[in-house]
Amino acid sequence: MATSVSSTTSTTTTTPKTDSASIGSALATALGGGTGIDMTALAGSLAEAQYAGKLANIDKQATKVDTEISQASQLKSDLLALATSLGTRVRAGDLAASPTVANSAVATASLPLGSAGGSGTYSLEVTSLASPQVLNSPAFAASSSVPGAGTLTLHFGTVAGGSFTEDATHAPVDVTIAPGATLDDVATAINGAGAGVTAYVATAADGAHLVLKGKQGATQGFTLSATEDPNNPGLSALAWEPVTGSATRLAATAKDAAFKLDGIARTSPSNTVDNVAPGLSLKLTATNAGSPTTISYSDPTSAISGAMSDLTSALNQIVTELNSDLDVANGGLYADPATRAAKRSLNQLTSMTIMPNAAAGDPRTLSDLGLSIDKSGNFTLDTNKLSSVLTSKPAAVAAMFTNGLYGVYGTFDGLTRTITSSSDPGGLGSAVTKYTKLKTSLADQRTKLVAQQDKFRSQLVDRFARANSNVAGSKATLTQLQAQVAAWNKTN
What is the phi/psi pair of residue 342, to 5°? Predict the structure, then answer.
């Protein structure tokens, strides 16, 4: 009996000890008890892992878009900068046979708009400059004096030898003077009439004078008549005409410019004389009667050669940039249609007709000036061909470097505007806009994903909080079970 009890006791004692340790360890491990796990950090890690792939994909796309925006913007900027630089060089005038006046005090010479330049020399003698008529009023006490009210009327024509011949093609201009208007107000009213006569008040030793000044040219003289307001008389004091008016009020008579070009007497209503000869415009600034000066032209051959060399180098810099952007392995714009279109357009530059109205045998394309594209896609300049055409057709070549609709600058500027257009879907400007919108969209997507990630993390934290509460309760039960097992073991 004792043996039987002893055998039973031994079996019962061994089994509970093993099972209680195993159960307690398993529960503690499963429920996080004693492990020091940060449930909040765990929730963050799980949420981050859940959305890491999506966020990484968006970040990768955003980086690619940033590269596309940067490279497309840079290419657009470089093309526009080259067009601007070329335009500045053309407008500087050294690429055309530009005129120069030996006596620069007498006049300045320039090329008429669109002119290819001139050649040879001219003799210039200026005998008088064009001038405007200047008329002043009788003296008033001050600029605040009230001269009366009514209507002043300006009549235009030629004032000469105490007579006036009105220009029937130039309509008179009425200027209304309100009651109470001061001399200053009269000047303001005349200026506001837009008659081509300016007015101001000058204060001299004898008082304030209303001064009227017309345009240059003999036919730009004028008279001033007055219709008084009976209730506010006095305006007639400002009226003037050469037959009865005081000669002292006519400070200067309107005159034409008079000059001789190659000994031929000429006149001009203005000191600025456009197209006075082929490839020549003048601005007369002083007289040199009896001492003619010489007008000669520069030789643009060297400047054109240098400009073509600079243009070739600049175009190759653009080509290098395009090749880099379109590189399949590393280029950010390798799949961009606008960039590919830009490369195709540049490849057509040498064969484009830039002088459609050129005479037979004259250069019409950049290829005629020696510019071509080699097998590698780079621009090359045949300097021998350029030198030959400069020698045989200097005027025609110079005509290609003028500021106008046609020519090297006009053609390249038009091509650049097309390539960089923001209104044309195939332009670089439109590409930049498209990529910028995509970048904004990606940023919005990322913001939404981050919000979803935060929401998911909050949900996990809430779940883990409830789990922790359950774990706490389970730990208490476990503790009681362990105590009970210990008590059983002790009893046994």
Answer: -60, -40
Q: Are strands 107-110 and 280-284 parallel, antiparallel or unpaired?
A: antiparallel
Q: What is the DSSP string of 380-437?
A: EE-HHHHHHHHHH-HHHHHHTTSSSSSHHHHHHHHHHHHHT-SSSTTSHHHHHHHHHH
Beta bridge partners of 297: 99
pLDDT in tens, 265-276: 999 999 999 999
CB 169 within 8 A of CB 210: no
Are 369 and 389 in contact by the 8 Å Cβ rule? The answer is: yes
Paired tokens of 57: 């994909």
Is residue 88 pLDDT above 80, yes or no?
Answer: yes
Element (H, E) at 240: none
Q: Tell me the Ramachandran region of residue 244: left when phi exceeds 0, alpha when psi lies from -120 to 50, beta otherwise.
A: alpha
List pLDDT tens digits, range 120-135.
899 999 999 999 999 9
CB atoms within 10 A of CB 377: 14
Reported pTM: 0.62
For residue 453, the model assigns a pLDDT of: 85
291 by Cβ neighbours in 10 Å (0-12 / 13-18 / 19+) ranks as exposed
Q: Residue 126 — φ and ψ, nearest 5°? A: -100, 120
End-to-end CA distance of the chain: 18
In order of their start, the domains of the chain are 99-129+257-297 (no CATH), 132-252 (3.30.70)
Tokens at 362, concatenated:
């004259």
> What is the rounded CA–CA span in Å between residue 430 and residue 421?
7
Token digits of residue 24: 């307690």
User: Any idea which residue has 């090359």 for tokens?
Assistant: 380
| Cross-strand partners of 192 | none
Rounded Cα distance between 272 and 111, Å, is 13
CA pseudo-torsion sign 9, 10, 12, 14: positive
Residue 47's pLDDT is: 74
Residue with tokens 């008329």: 135
Give 228-284 pLDDT, tens digit per residue: 999 999 999 999 999 999 999 999 999 999 999 999 999 999 999 999 998 899 999
> How far apart (Å, rounded) are the C-alpha atoms in residues 130 and 477?
116
